[in-house]
Amino acid sequence: MTPPHREFFRYFLSMLHGAFFARYASGEEREAGLADRSQQAAMVTPEACSAAADASHSAVMGETVEGTECEAAIATYKAAESGIGHSVNVVIIFTRCGAPGRIRTSS
Questions:
Q1: Is residue 105 included in any domain, yes or no?
Q2: pLDDT-based confidence at 24, cuts 50/70/90?
Q3: What's the number of domains the chain is made of?
């Protein structure tokens, strides 16, 4: 069982890439507010996933859920873990790029 919002979050985080760098654009395209909002969104998602994973882990380990509720809690935990991992990967890509579509090499 995969929560339906899982792919939405992955797509949402991936699409933030261009906005994440909006403050570094030249001329009229420069938009620091858009960059700030995309960075805030990139931070909110792992926080929400972490809270969901914690609640699911506590429910399963505390044996407060059984049967389909237990399966749902495990699926939520796995989806949250995946969301956190994807968030980390997106941030790593953000920090490795000098601009959207261009990878910066180490100096």
A1: no
A2: confident
A3: 1
List the beta bridge partners of residue 103.
Answer: 97
Specify the DSSP element, H or E, that contains 89: helix 67-96
C-beta of residue 21 within 8 angstroms of C-beta of residue 97: yes
Instruction: Output the average pLDDT for the chain.
Output: 79
Residue that the structure tokens 């956190």 belong to: 84
Q: Please give the residue range of the domain that contains residue 70.
A: 5-99
Buried b (16+ CB within 10 A) or exposed e, 32-65: eebbeebbeebeebbeebeebbeebbebbeeeeb
DSSP tag of 25: -
* pTM beyond 0.70: no
